[in-house]
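Structure first, sequence second, as always.
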């Protein structure tokens, strides 16, 4: 995939996410800001479907339907926003990034359903620097009484250059009640196993590690216990791409390894 094709996909994904009653690209800067990007994950255990905002401007709505779009003009009209929002385990805009202008924001998630529609369930303050990429995670266990949840932001500092023989992988820990964990990747062809960085605590992100393209079995465990609490097998990693493997869920009721490409 060339850089031009990647940019076209990014712009197309941002456009699809921008339709509905409230456009989500108001805060997006002009073309020079296209390299300053952000995306959102809903990993709040037991939490509702949400739409994501920067301050009071929607950045990413979900599953908006009934609209028309023109990718060449960058316009979209009509449409009705879904009341499902981005559900638990979901990522906005199909995993692609939205463009955003640099600045300090209070990122927040608001309930998409008819009941409590628009109610904020999380506020996460973060300074966004020009030319950088970020991922926002709702995390923790949703408090259905207070109607709140936890959340955090990590930078996605992957290289813009392409390596057509290898991939880059990093590990993010969003499991709120877990101890620091290490992720291991086992190549199904060579059976070689590689640690994807060191221990990563809750709300932490490890460094990107270079692996050969191929199919991998991943396992994450608390190093001190030397046990494997959860695994994900047969994950195909395509040369030239960048991946984030994240935990989601609870250490007491079950965890899962999510695989989402950064590029």
């Amino acid at each position: 995939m060339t850089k031009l094709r990647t940019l076209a996909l990014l712009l197309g994904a941002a456009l699809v996410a921008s339709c509905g009653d409230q456009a989500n690209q108001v805060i997006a800067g002009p073309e020079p800001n296209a390299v300053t990007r952000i995306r959102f994950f809903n990993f709040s255990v037991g939490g509702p479907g949400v739409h994501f905002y920067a301050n009071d401007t929607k950045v990413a709505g979900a599953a908006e339907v009934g609209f028309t779009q023109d990718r060449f003009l960058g316009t979209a009209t009509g449409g009705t926003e879904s009341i499902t929002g981005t559900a638990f385990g979901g990522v906005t805009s199909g995993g692609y990034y939205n463009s955003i202008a640099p600045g300090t924001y209070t990122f927040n998630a608001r309930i998409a359903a008819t009941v409590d529609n628009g109610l904020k369930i999380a506020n996460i303050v973060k300074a966004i620097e020009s030319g950088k990429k970020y991922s926002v995670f709702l995390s923790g266990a949703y408090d259905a009484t207070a109607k709140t949840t936890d959340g955090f932001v990590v930078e996605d500092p992957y290289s813009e250059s392409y390596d057509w023989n290898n991939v880059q992988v990093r590990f993010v820990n969003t499991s709120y009640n877990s101890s620091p964990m290490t992720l291991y990747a086992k190549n199904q062809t060579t059976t070689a196993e590689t640690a994807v960085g060191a221990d990563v605590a809750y709300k932490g992100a490890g460094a990107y590690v270079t692996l050969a393209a191929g199919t991998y079995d991943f396992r994450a465990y608390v190093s001190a216990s030397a046990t494997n609490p959860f695994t994900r097998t047969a994950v195909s990693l395509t040369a030239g791409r960048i991946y984030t493997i994240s935990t989601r869920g609870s250490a007491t009721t079950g965890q899962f390894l999510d695989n989402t490409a950064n590029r």
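Margin note: Residues 3-16 form the longest helix (14 residues).
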